[in-house]
Amino acid sequence: MFEAVHHIAIIATDYQRSRAFYRDSLGFTILAETFRDARNSWKCDLRHGVVQIELFSFPDPPPRPNRPEAAGLRHLAFTVADLDTAIGTLNARGVVTEPICTDELTGKRFTFFADPDGLPLELYEA
Question: Which of 12, 61, 79, 106 has its CA 20 to 30 Å from the CA of residue 126?
């Protein structure tokens, strides 16, 4: 039925800050950017490889529950070929990453970091 994930939609509290984070810190390319007057909202389409993010701004969005095991989307994970290199790149760009962990089921290494709104993001070594 499904072939792939088409996009991930993210609502930012500070659109310009999040736009810069996904573009400059994570290396996404901006495909399109539109201001929607009727919603007083920006929409930015970003792509990195096969991953596409729709970044939105809305006036006064409610905060996301910040408990580690809250219901809903837990985190967004990106595959990387070399975890150490990816961490070094993020750290050089000012992104703080957590200590490296090893998945007890797969033996693969991973780490977490956060976007400007605290959305949990993961790097998972292929």
Answer: 12
Q: How many beta carbons lie within 10 A of that of residue 55, not counting itself? A: 24
Closest by CA to 78, choosing from 67, 69, 70, 89, is 89
Q: Which CATH architecture has domain 74-126?
A: Roll (3.10)
Q: 16-59: per-residue pLDDT in tens?
A: 999 999 999 999 999 999 999 999 999 999 999 999 999 999 98
Note the pTM of the prediction, 2 decimals.
0.88
Segments making up each domain of the chain, as ranges: 1-60, 74-126
The CATH architecture annotation of domain 1-60 reads Roll (3.10)
Please state, as a whole number, how many other Cβ atoms lie within 10 Å of the Cβ of residue 8: 14
